[in-house]
Design a protein that fits this description.
- The protein has ten helices and eleven strands.
- It has about 290 residues and is of the alpha/beta class.
- The longest helix is centred in the last third of the chain and has 20 residues, at about 195-215.
C-alpha cells in the first residue's frame, strides 16, 4: 500500500495508473475504520483495478465543534487494517491540501429540499460541508467508481445529487449497512460507547425492525409513536427524529398506499453520542 499526503503526489500516482488503463475505485472515510469500511474496500477491489481510500476528518461538515473535537482518531490501527484489506493507495491529506483556499464555502451547492429535512434540519450546513469535501476528493482522485455505505442514507442521496449537479463521471455504488450480531449498525462513533451503551443502542435497530414488521397501508403515525417510545425507554436522552419516508426522495409519508417503497430512519443521542440508522421497508405483510 502506498501512503500519500499531498494532492500533487496523489494526482501523479493516479495519472500513471490511468495511463496503463486502470479502473480506479474510491472509498472516502474519516478514519476510525471498522468492518463496514473494509466491506467498501472489498467491493472496490472486486470491481476496480486500483483502490484508493482517503482518511480526512472534514471540519466543514461538523455543525458542532465539540463533536469534531471528539471524533475518534485511530490512525495506526486504520493503516494496519487497510494494509490487511489490500488497499492500494491511502490518501492522508492535511486540511490545506483539501482546502488550499481555506475552508469557507466558495459557492453553495443547490441541494434543494434534501438539506432541509432529517439530517439537514438537525445539522445545518452539514451537507454543504459533505459536498465541499466529496467534490474536492472526486476532483483529485477522478475515480470510475465511488463506494459509500447505506447507513448514511441521506448522505448517499446528497452525493448522488452532487454528482448530477457537477456532471461528474463517476458511478456511485451504495453498499448495505454492516451490523454487529446485536443489530447495532457499525459506526466510528460506536467507539465512544461503553458496552452497556452498546446494548442500549440496539433499541434503534429493534424499533426499525418493529416498523418493518408491523407496516400496513394507512396511517403510519402510531408506528412512529411506538418506535419513539421504545427508543426513549432504552435510555436515549434525545431523539432528533424517527421518520418513515419515501425511499426515492425522503419526503415524509404519513399515510401509506401499500406499494410505494419506504425507508425508516432514526437519529438519537445516547450519553452524548449521536447515532443514526435506517432500514428499507418491504410491502405490507412481507417483511424483507
Amino acid at each position: 500500500m502506498i501512503l500519500l499526503k499531498t494532492a500533487s503526489d496523489l494526482s501523479r500516482t493516479l495519472a500513471s495508473r490511468r495511463a496503463s488503463g486502470a479502473r480506479i475505485g474510491f472509498v472516502p472515510t474519516m478514519g476510525a475504520l471498522h468492518p463496514g469500511h473494509l466491506k467498501l474496500v472489498e467491493h472496490s477491489k472486486k470491481n476496480s483495478d486500483a483502490t484508493v481510500v482517503s482518511i480526512f476528518v472534514n471540519p466543514t461538515q461538523f455543525n458542532d465543534a465539540n463533536d469534531y473535537a471528539q471524533y475518534p482518531i485511530t490512525l495506526e490501527k486504520d493503516i494496519y487494517l487497510l494494509e490487511q484489506a489490500g488497499c492500494d493507495i491511502l490518501f492522508l491529506p492535511a486540511i490545506d491540501e483539501i482546502y488550499p483556499r481555506g475552508t469557507a464555502l466558495q459557492e453553495p451547492y443547490a441541494l434543494g429540499y434534501l438539506e432541509t429535512l432529517l439530517e439537514g434540519k438537525y445539522r445545518p450546513g452539514h451537507f454543504q460541508g459533505v459536498c465541499q469535501v466529496v467534490h474536492r476528493l472526486l476532483e483529485l482522485v477522478q475515480p470510475s467508481l465511488l463506494f459509500m455505505g447505506q447507513k448514511d442514507y441521506q448522505q448517499c442521496m446528497v452525493v448522488r445529487q452532487l454528482i448530477h449537479l457537477k456532471q461528474l463521471p463517476v458511478d456511485l455504488r451504495i453498499i448495505p449497512t454492516l451490523r454487529e450480531t446485536s443489530g447495532l449498525a457499525l459506526s466510528s462513533r460506536n467507539l465512544r460507547l461503553s458496552e452497556k451503551d452498546k446494548e442500549a443502542a440496539t433499541a434503534i435497530y429493534r424499533s426499525l425492525q418493529m416498523i418493518r414488521n408491523e407496516l400496513r397501508p394507512g396511517n403510519l403515525g402510531p408506528l412512529i409513536t411506538r418506535a419513539t417510545n421504545e427508543i426513549r425507554a432504552a435510555g436515549f436522552e434525545k431523539i432528533d427524529y424517527v421518520s418513515i419516508a419515501s425511499a426515492q426522495d425522503l419526503s415524509e409519508v404519513s399515510n401509506w398506499n401499500g406499494h410505494s417503497p419506504l425507508v425508516a430512519l432514526v437519529a438519537a443521542f445516547l450519553n452524548g453520542v449521536r447515532l443514526i440508522d435506517n432500514l428499507s421497508l418491504a410491502e405490507a405483510g412481507n417483511p424483507a
